[in-house]
Amino acid sequence: MNQKNKIITIIGSGVWGTALSKLVSRNHHHCRLWSRRSLENLESVIHDADVILSAVSMQGVRPTIEDLQSLEISQKTIFLSATKGLDPITTLTASQIWQSAFPNCSHVVLSGPNLSPEIEQNLPAATVVSSHDTQAAEAIQLIFSSDTFRVYVNSDPLGTELGGTLKNVMAIASGVCDGLNLGTNAKAALLTRALPEMIRVGTSRGAKQETFFGLSGLGDLLATCNSPLSRNYQVGYRLSQGQTLEQIITALKGTAEGINTTEVLLKIAQKQDLYVPITYQVYRLLKGEITPQEAVNNLMKRDLKAEFYE
Ligand SMILES: NC(=O)C1=CN([C@@H]2O[C@H](COP(=O)(O)OP(=O)(O)OC[C@H]3O[C@@H](n4cnc5c(N)ncnc54)[C@H](OP(=O)(O)O)[C@@H]3O)[C@@H](O)[C@H]2O)C=CC1
Ligand SMILES: O=C(CO)COP(=O)(O)O
């Protein structure tokens, strides 16, 4: 694909879709930012698009696909997914759903430590674009790369997507950790134990372990779990301050995917008999079954064991 002046249609004009539209426009590509509330119709904005980028939250993925399936889409169009969530019914990632809906097109995932307010400010950041189609991933890499946005490529889309998705659960736990003032040691312990938990789930689904040590895994875990800019972190922090989940969701600006992901992740873990202690405590906390302090106590009081195990 010639890299000059591509037409990029972004579906979902929430904070992430908007931040991505600025990256595209700064690189002098033609960006069409669309949401279900736009006056333009979807058919006109996808016409001749080189890339259809989905930046809707997980609950918007299936409705968006249904709208697009009735329209004519060239097989040359690259689908790019920036959603970080899991489908509650099938437990599939967003890109897996896009792939099965449009099997004849190339699919790429974009995921990394990319808190949108910092991207909006044009602060330096890095991300990963991942696909089984190397050419498509490299085309997306060129479209988004700039002096302030460094884009890497890998060929493990599932691992890339799951890193960004699973860390949202850990970000809730991390917000609790900071809100209860548990200290730097506790935070280091939490994040270090969170990564193997994410890897256990990811590799059981076919993702590569090494991907979780990259930007979309460890990188996004560090960013999201250490920043009050993260909505998922805010959920945990506010729970630690005694707010109810209902109050938090009402006050929260934007989507915290980790709330839904925790439930789906626990379902996966129970079905596949995977050990996910942090996720389990986050789940019970979100359900109102335990207090934040009880979640901490439950994690600390578990049976002793070796640090590394299969
Ligand atoms: N914000 C960030 O820093 C980052 C976010 N992400 C991921 O990107 C995704 C979007 O996040 P973000 O932009 O922050 O969230 P927002 O809550 O700001 O925006 C959500 C978007 O999804 C759309 N949407 C929600 N439900 C539906 C539906 N049923 N049908 C169609 N569209 C729907 C919304 O449309 P409408 O406005 O009409 O409601 C809106 O455009 C999430 O999966 C998030 O994890 C990834 C990286 C960074
Ligand atoms: O994924 C993100 C940063 O990489 C955004 O995190 P939140 O959805 O928690 O705000």
Automatic annotation (TrEMBL):
GO terms for cellular component: cytosol. NAD(+) binds at residues 12-17, 231. Its EC number is 1.1.1.94. It catalyses: sn-glycerol 3-phosphate + NADP(+) = dihydroxyacetone phosphate + NADPH + H(+); sn-glycerol 3-phosphate + NAD(+) = dihydroxyacetone phosphate + NADH + H(+). InterPro entries: 6-PGluconate_DH-like_C_sf (IPR008927), 6PGD_dom2 (IPR013328), G3P_DH_NAD-dep (IPR006168), G3P_DH_NAD-dep_C (IPR006109), G3P_DH_NAD-dep_N (IPR011128), NAD(P)-bd_dom_sf (IPR036291). Pathway: Membrane lipid metabolism; glycerophospholipid metabolism. It is found in: Cytoplasm. Residues 8-38, 40-136 form the Glycerol-3-phosphate dehydrogenase NAD-dependent N-terminal domain. NADPH binds at residues 16, 36-37, 84, 116, 231, 257. SUPFAM superfamilies: 6-phosphogluconate dehydrogenase C-terminal domain-like (SSF48179), NAD(P)-binding Rossmann-fold domains (SSF51735). GO terms for biological process: carbohydrate metabolic process; glycerol-3-phosphate biosynthetic process; glycerol-3-phosphate catabolic process; glycerophospholipid metabolic process; phospholipid biosynthetic process. Signal peptide: none annotated. Sn-glycerol 3-phosphate binds at residues 84, 112, 167, 220, 230-232. Pfam families: NAD_Gly3P_dh_C, NAD_Gly3P_dh_N. The active site is at 167 (proton acceptor). Residues 156-297 form the Glycerol-3-phosphate dehydrogenase NAD-dependent C-terminal domain. Substrate binds at residues 84, 231-232. One of its GO terms (molecular function) is glycerol-3-phosphate dehydrogenase (NADP+) activity. Keywords: Cytoplasm, Lipid biosynthesis, Lipid metabolism, NAD, NADP, Nucleotide-binding, Oxidoreductase, Phospholipid biosynthesis, Phospholipid metabolism. It is an enzyme of class 1 (oxidoreductase). HAMAP family: NAD_Glyc3P_dehydrog. Catalyzes the reduction of the glycolytic intermediate dihydroxyacetone phosphate (DHAP) to sn-glycerol 3-phosphate (G3P), the key precursor for phospholipid synthesis. Belongs to the NAD-dependent glycerol-3-phosphate dehydrogenase family. This is Glycerol-3-phosphate dehydrogenase [NAD(P)+]. It comes from Aphanothece hegewaldii CCALA 016. The lineage of its organism: Bacteria, Bacillati, Cyanobacteriota, Cyanophyceae, Oscillatoriophycideae. The gene is gpsA.
